[in-house]
Amino acid sequence: MQLTQPFRKLKPSRGNEAGLTRMSTDLNRRIWMKHASVTLALLPSFFFSRQASAKRNVELRAKFKYQSTPLESMSCTSCLEFIPGKTDKDLGGCKILPDDDEIEPNGYCIRWNTM
């Protein structure tokens, strides 16, 4: 015994002036839920993919004559401007080279500073 009939017209009321059938409102709700769940599932991939890109400031690298090898005993690891990566061997950043997060720990530039 069925308590509700899925195809019968509902009586018009405040929320249902058009007299929509129960089936069409259920279908609209399902479509909306489907789109909302897909959007929520894809949202994290959008944020993580944007964070993964590394940046280089090519103009300032050329201006300060940055090189990925040390000059004698001078390297980025001993410079006060160097911002280390997660480990000692990971790429880091530099206070002098903004928007550049691919600085080699053993790199060197003419702005090397220990004071």
State the share of residues found in helices, binned by percent: 25-40%
Q: Which runs of at least 5 residues are low in confidence (pLDDT < 50)?
A: none
The termini sit apart by: 87 Å
**Tally of alpha and pi helices:** 2
Q: What string, H for helix and E for strand, traces the elements in order?
A: HHEE
Count of individual domains: 2
CATH architecture label name of the largest domain: Irregular
CATH class of the largest domain: Few Secondary Structures
Strand order of the largest sheet: 1-2
Rg of Cα set: 30 Å
CATH homologous superfamily classification of the largest domain: High potential iron-sulphur protein
Instruction: Report the mean per-residue pLDDT as an integer.
Output: 79
The CATH topology of the largest domain:
High-Potential Iron-Sulfur Protein, Chain A
Envelope shape:
rod-shaped
Structure classification: mainly alpha
Query: How much β-strand is present in the residues?
Result: under 5%
